[in-house]
Design a protein that fits this description.
Strand order of the largest sheet: 1-10-9-6-7
Largest sheet: 5 strands, antiparallel
Oligomer: single chain
Shape: globular
Strand content: 15-25%
Number of helices: 7
Helix content: 25-40%
Radius of gyration: 18 Å
Structural class: alpha+beta
Order of helices and strands: EEEHHHEEEEHHEEHHE
């Protein structure tokens, strides 16, 4: 098994993404923390998004064999969510205020000789490539329908002549704030936020390893851009195909260059010049 990992900071103050690497348990994952809209700073000026991804990372990397013997990945994600809640309580976060919560998306796998278990929350994604070159999108981007509303406002404003990213951000910020109220609800999306409701919205399951060639886990900062928009399923197919023929590092460098040629986010509508980028590529040899 050959493992390639990558975690790069975008045009953000902190890299709020994180990698989960627990080789003893063959447990691997990616996390995408999100800063609360009611700003919080930790003792070293850390953002809530950074703290969320680090708390969850540390939980999974601290697990030993006895911790997972009779426990599935869904149960482990619930425990990580409880750990996050406890840390927010210690920090004095008002848990009834969704805009104040530290949050993170997650894609997590555990590899065994014959199968791969997975769990997913938010918009971190998992893809599998097979020896016949077919690509299977294992997870679903649960945030895509929410982001679509904000991106429509962004695109329409560009059509009206708004050309600065800062002005575009001010237009979509109220919608993003409103969307926070939909976390872990039937109208919204799943996210690790310390809320017990997450337990009802974790997606998880198992795929077998027959003819499995590789697995890819990514945060949304590695999603390819398109001028006209792209369906999530097609996007993951494109991304996986490109990384299969190259490397995570080479793909990330190409994407960075593309983004910095479009600093006002006009050609490729998005909310940051360059988002944090984290991925794990696992090739079975």
């Amino acid at each position: 098994m050959k493992l390639e990992t990558l975690s790069l900071q975008g045009t953000t103050e902190w890299n709020e993404d994180a990698l989960i690497i627990n080789e003893h348990l063959q447990l691997f994952g990616v996390l995408d923390g999100a800063t609360s809209l009611h700003p919080y700073r930790g003792p070293n000026n850390e953002t809530g998004g950074y703290l969320a991804s680090q708390i969850i990372k540390q939980y999974f990397e601290s697990l030993a064999e006895e911790d997972v013997r009779d426990t599935n990945l869904k149960q482990l994600v619930i425990q990580a969510n409880i750990r996050l809640r406890d840390k927010m309580v210690e920090a004095g976060i008002q848990l009834s205020d969704k805009a104040a919560l530290w949050t993170s998306a997650l894609a997590l796998i555990r590899i065994t000789d014959h199968y791969v278990d997975y769990a997913q929350v938010g918009d971190c994604m998992i893809a599998a490539a097979y020896k016949d070159d077919r690509i299977r999108t294992v997870s679903r981007d649960q945030v895509a329908h929410i982001d679509q509303q904000s991106k429509l406002i962004w695109t329409e404003a560009i059509g009206r002549g708004v050309s600065k990213r800062e002005e575009l951000w001010e237009l979509v910020k109220p919608v993003i704030l409103q969307n926070k109220s939909k976390m872990n609800t039937m109208e919204g999306y799943s996210i690790l936020s310390g809320e017990p409701e997450l337990a009802d919205f974790i997606e998880y399951g198992r795929i077998n390893r027959i003819q499995l060639k590789s697995l890819l886990l990514v945060t949304d900062g590695l999603f390819p851009h398109s001028e006209s928009g792209i369906e999530p399923e097609d996007m993951i197919q494109q991304l996986t195909t490109r990384i299969e023929s190259d490397t995570l590092a080479a793909y990330a460098e190409w994407l960075f260059n593309l983004e910095f040629e479009d600093k006002d986010c006009q050609r490729y509508p998005r909310f940051k010049i360059s988002d944090d980028k984290t991925g794990i590529s696992i090739r079975f040899e």
